[in-house]
Amino acid sequence: MKVLPAVALGLFISLCSLTEARAQGRPKLAKQRPVTFITREARVGKVMYPLADMLKAGELETVNREATAFDADGKKGVKLSAAENEGLAWLKNIDFDHGELEVDMKGKDVFQHSFLGIAFHGTDEPNTMDVIYFRPFNFRTDDPVRKIHAVQYVSLPEFDWEILREKHNGQYEKAVTPAPKADEWFHARIVVKGADVTVYVNGNPQPSLSIKKLNTNTHGKLGLWVGNTSDGEFANLTVNYK
């Protein structure tokens, strides 16, 4: 069984027994101790990634963005700054294959300046990844065309939003149901199972988006993503490895 690279000392990912976590139905949290390696056997059940603590411990790798930790309004997480072009914060030493990703995010109600989401199956090649991202400024718009451009899948670098909208209009982007307020926190659950990717928002059992991946990558890096000129806040990231 392949063992992933060592996680630097200082990253605290708390894990309790699988039996207890399943019984209580919550992410695995126990004594804080440094985890020096993570095997695929250890990644069973739901694992919480403490983004603010990971940033302070140097366990987030930022690309074209500055990241700051915050603890306010009942949320503890990381904010990525705004800048030209896309930006990322990769979780170091995490190799995500399939499962359920859950995260709280907050953008802003500024037209064409709020794109944020989750990147997964990233590779060492520049700008090569899958991304599920949101356009909060379109959540509650009265424009019916903009409204169906609220959540988007892209497979970079080959299939960006422009190509997908031109060649597969309405297939890889949809409205978000129920529509959150643009400048408030919302919860996303992204289910990756083989080539199938399904997105749920704010506990709705009906998906806002359901697509098939447009590449053959089956695992890779996991990170926080923001689009051109966009910042974004992220908290409560968990992965249910199934």
From TrEMBL:
InterPro entries according to UniProt:
AL/BT2_dom, ConA-like_dom_sf
Q: Which domain of life is it from?
A: Bacteria
A single GO molecular function, which one? hydrolase activity, hydrolyzing O-glycosyl compounds
GO BP term, pick one: carbohydrate metabolic process
Task: Please give the Pfam families that the UniProt record associates with this protein.
Answer: 3keto-disac_hyd (PF06439)
Q: What is this protein called?
A: 3-keto-alpha-glucoside-1,2-lyase/3-keto-2-hydroxy-glucal hydratase domain-containing protein
Origin organism of this chain? Mucilaginibacter pedocola
Give every 3-keto-alpha-glucoside-1,2-lyase/3-keto-2-hydroxy-glucal hydratase domain span: 81-239
